[in-house]
What we know:
Layout: H1 3-23, H2 30-41, H3 49-56, H4 60-72, E1 76-80, E2 88-92, H5 96-114, H6 120-138
Antiparallel strand pairs: 1-2
Helix pairs in contact: 2-4
Amino acid sequence: MNDTVLLLKKISNRMECNRNRSLKELGLTATQLDLLYYLYKHREKENTLSDITSFFGIQHTSTIHVLKILEQKGYIYKMPTKRNPRFKNICLTDKGLPLMEQFNASIAAVNRQIFSGITETEQEELDRLLNIIYKNLNNIS
């Protein structure tokens, strides 16, 4: 394992820890917020369990667990999709939408802090390289 892989792991761990600490007073975890943020950013379209698991690259069972918790907390609801009533469209509730509108500004502020000292061009290059790494990981059997 090279230092880059370890550094990526350290960055991931630090971000998760910081986010969980700041979300604790709301009774949310970073994983739950990520899912809510996904729904917020994609609220103009239908979002099914398969859409979410595909986007995050996680198992259905993990997603189902997080969705159940968010539904119990009143942040999301499910309704049949227009394209196939057997599938459920997962939506933000009247409690979830304002929370995410508030967090949208906070997320932008955190991103500015994380990327301070990095030019827009450097950030685009970082995104490009990380996307290559992610695609390579998906090709490993």
